[in-house]
C-alpha cells in the first residue's frame, strides 16, 4: 500500500500532502476522512476505504478487502484531524 506511505513522514507532512491534493473530509467519519477519500481515488480498484486511528481497510472491486496498520505519521494525522487540528481539511457539512 505504497500510497499510504507516500503521504509523508510526519502528521504535518500528511496534512500538507492531503491539502495539496484537495482531499477534504469529515472528522470522526471513518469512510469520509481525507485519508479515506484520497485512497478511493488514487489507488486503482479501491471501492471504498475505512480509516481508523490505527489501521485501515480498503474494499476492492471484486469483493476482496485489504487491512493494514497505519504508519505512525498517518495515524498521528488521523488522531489530530479528529480532535480539530488541520481545520483547512474539513469538508463542508451539508443538510
Structure description:
Helix content is 37%, strand content 18%. The longest helix has 11 residues, at 11-21. With 95 residues, the chain is α+β, with helices and mostly antiparallel strands. Helix 2 packs across helix 4 (72-82).
Percent in helix: 25-40%
Order of helices and strands: HHHEEEH
Assign the structural class, choosing from mainly alpha, mainly beta, alpha/beta, alpha+beta, or little secondary structure: alpha+beta
Total strand segments: 3
Count of helical stretches? 4
Q: Mean of the pLDDT scores?
A: 95
Strand content: 15-25%
Rg, nearest Å: 12 Å
Poorly predicted sequence stretches spanning 5 or more consecutive residues: none
User: Which word captures the global form?
Assistant: globular
Question: Going across the major beta sheet, what is the strand order?
Answer: 1-2-3
Distance, first to last CA? 34 Å
Q: Could you describe the largest sheet, including whether it forms a barrel?
A: 3 strands, antiparallel
Short overview:
The protein has about 100 residues and is α+β, with helices and mostly antiparallel strands. Helices cover about 35% and strands about 20% of the residues. It has a 3-stranded antiparallel beta sheet, covered by helices on one side.
Amino acid at each position: 500500500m505504497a500510497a499510504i506511505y507516500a503521504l509523508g513522514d510526519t502528521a504535518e507532512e500528511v496534512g500538507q500532502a492531503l491539502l495539496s491534493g484537495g482531499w477534504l473530509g469529515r472528522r470522526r467519519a471513518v469512510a469520509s476522512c481525507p485519508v479515506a477519500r484520497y485512497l478511493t481515488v488514487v489507488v486503482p480498484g479501491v471501492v471504498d476505504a475505512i480509516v481508523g486511528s490505527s489501521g485501515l481497510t480498503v474494499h476492492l472491486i471484486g469483493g476482496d478487502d485489504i487491512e493494514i496498520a497505519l504508519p505512525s505519521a498517518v495515524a498521528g494525522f488521523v488522531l489530530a484531524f479528529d480532535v480539530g487540528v488541520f481545520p483547512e481539511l474539513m469538508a463542508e457539512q451539508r443538510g
